[in-house]
Amino acid sequence: MAEPSRLLIVDDNEDILSTFYEFFNSMGYEVKTAIDGFAALKLLRDKSNFFDCLITDLVMPNISGVGLISIVKKEYSHLKIIAMTGYGDQPGALASEAKADVVLFKPIDLFKIESTVSELINQENNEQEK
Amino acid sequence: MSTPLIGVSKSILKIKELINHVANTCLNVLITGETGVGKEVVAQSLYCESARSSKNFVKINCAALPETLLESELYGYEKGAFTGAHKRRPGKFQTADKGVLFLDEIGDMPMALQSKMLHVLQSGEFSPLGSDQDFKTDVWVIAATNHNLEESIYQKTFREDLFYRLNIIKIDIPPLRERKEDIPSLIEYYFRLYKSEYPENKGTKPESDTLAKLCNYPWPGNVRQLQNCIKKQMVLNSWEKIFEELPKEHHEISPLSRADNNTLEQPIDYHEFSGNRTSIISEFVDLSTSSDKLFEDISLKKIKKLASDKVEKEVIAFVLEKVGWNRSRAAKILKISYKTLLYKMNEFKVHPPVK
User: Fold this and answer.
1) Exposed site from A113, B9, B277, B355, fewest CB < 10 Å?
2) What's the domain range around A50?
3) Which domains does chain B have, with CATH numbers?
4) Chain B residues with CB-CB distance to A under 8 A?
5) What are the tens digits of pLDDT across the range B93-139?
6) How far apart are CA B162 and CA B122, in angstroms?
């Protein structure tokens, strides 16, 4: 792998956030984290071309995951998005409607997310090579 | 002209920043906060900063109208849709097209209309009463409520799916008592406003000690109440009178504890009897933190312990005083063992008065 893939992980639960950070870091990714959609949006506006993939929780204060996904799909359409939800079907359905690439339901196996991430990123790279 | 969002507190600055970031997304917004905090001011700011500011800002209060009237106000009706519908009338959705529809007090919207609203938000289409035609709608929906909608969902008075659809962007405005640093600038603003509207008024601005008093008042009616006070001052020109007329929130010693408060560490807080939800909660949880931090802090188990301790302590002291600090009698009345009583007295530091 030439350059490490860059992830932005968003969750309002700091324990989840640090677990994800540790895990993806150890898998060789470059990881940034944000505590809600608003913090994530500020990071993205600051470095719009930096990230390859966004992993976001859905129910969060200020800007929800659904809001973040809608904005990202409009403004940074290259970014792959994985939505995670632990709140039943409603937010998940809204995330699909907002065109998240993948919607996963909590609890989620970290290795499963990782394989989803690498699939999405590789798919993007393959498309670029074509 | 609309009122600007005034304040220097962290929470207001954050709201301003958030408005700035989302004003052009047209994503549904839910604004929450106690009555009088300025939910409509925030909605107006969103509208003013958006590309829709040249179109209409249409407001409808979902609590003020009976169900059927609210429905026809929202969606309009065709001629002959019901008795008295002599001509076609456009609804708020039509008037707000390409602009903003501000749904105030959304928490009070009847269930049947919530379903219809959900459908419109999902499909982007609506049909006026008595019409078989669907109209496309392009409105930016901003909703506001002073209800805790999560609680309303639990009590089945608010639809969960509608909540999630509205709650894409959430702006929570803290009560004025949690951002006292905003009070001086609000006073300044309304003072200037009323002075310019009625230049002949002689009301004077507060001196520093009056200002301190104003800053320390809990303002249960929030910014609206403060605004009314300043309006009054313009006419009365007597801060003394204004303070007299303010509802007393804080009684230093409540009538219950006044007679025999010498054994109580703290006077009984008047809030306990006022039935004010947030003031009760704030006794056990710090409500002034941001809502994400707050939600981490709130634990029913912890609160249960704190709340029951507080009441137990008072009840134990009350009974002990009634029986002249006879512990075995008190234990019998309280229906606990003598040992438990001693343990609890020790834990809650309930001691007989030193003579």
Assistant:
1) B355
2) 6-129
3) 10-174 (3.40.50.300), 178-245 (1.10.8.60), 255-347 (1.10.10)
4) 18, 21-22, 25, 27, 160-161, 164-165, 167-172, 290-292
5) 999 999 999 999 999 999 999 999 999 999 999 999 988 889 999 99
6) 9
Query: Over the stretch B50-84, which tens digit does the pLDDT of each residue have?
Result: 999 999 999 999 998 999 999 999 999 988 888 88
Burial B151-164 (b: 16+ CB within 10 A, else e): ebbeeebbbbbbbb
Domain count, chain A: 1
CA gap B97, B58 in Å, rounded: 9
Nearest by Cα to B147 from B206, B198, B105: B105
Contact B18 A12 (CB under 8 A): no
Q: Would you call A12 and B292 a contact, using CB atoms and an 8 Å cutoff?
A: yes
Which residues on chain A are in Cβ contact (under 8 Å) with B161? Answer: 90
Which residues of chain A are at the B interface, by a Cβ-Cβ cutoff of 8 Å?
Answer: 12, 35-36, 38, 41-42, 45, 59-64, 66-67, 70-71, 74, 90-91, 94
Instruction: Say what the ipTM of the complex is.
Output: 0.89
